[in-house]
Amino acid sequence: MELNEIMRELELLGNDRMKKYYMSQGAIEPLFGVPTGAMKPIVKKFKKNQQMADDLYDTGNYDAMYLAGMIADPKRMTPEDFDRWIDKAYFYMISDFIVAVTLAETDFAQEVADKFIQSGKDLVMSAGWSCYEWLLGSRKDTEFDREKIMSLLQYVEKNIHSQSDRTKHSMNRFLIAVGISYIPLHHDAMRTAELIGEVKVSLGGKAGTLQKAFDSIKKETEKGRLGFKRKNVRC
After folding, report:
1. pTM for this predicted structure
2. What is the 3-class SS of 161-196, one letter each residue?
């Protein structure tokens, strides 16, 4: 299939309800409103195709960008490719669920995530913290440096309340991931979560508080899910 054929197919798969939902979350035109599940037949045709993924991502169409993440070949991507992708990530569903998720399947994920976290840009930092969430929830504990993850926990403790809203959200999710999926620092994550308490945000124009990390970790621990690891990062 050529790029223009895929774009026509995506247009046919779109619907107004999903388009309105994506736009309520921050998506902007162009987009068609394609449900994620409806893209799977296209994914089966391509499996992994990095050139087509790049072409789709470069259209700036949200649905095409999401499909790009589903067919991307992380083994063929470079840190520079992720710099380019994050530069075009204009809202969190791209930064956290396309860029961060794809990055989490590379061998250099932590290196790039660290750079994102240090960027000072809300969506870029959010992608960095989100990448660590995906990594911690899918890779063996032995693949992480305990002291490094501890330093990130300490950063969360000292800085989460002063961060921009999207970054707060991803830092909170990172904290929960450490508490549930990274056994060496489970107790430290619980202590950190208890110390930071409620995290106030304004997302989608609505003010509120994030789910308490302490409660989330405690609940999953009581369910016997301590040490949980998912088999796959991407759908």
Report:
1. 0.94
2. HHCCHHHHHHHHHHHHHHHHHCHHHHHHHHHHHHHH
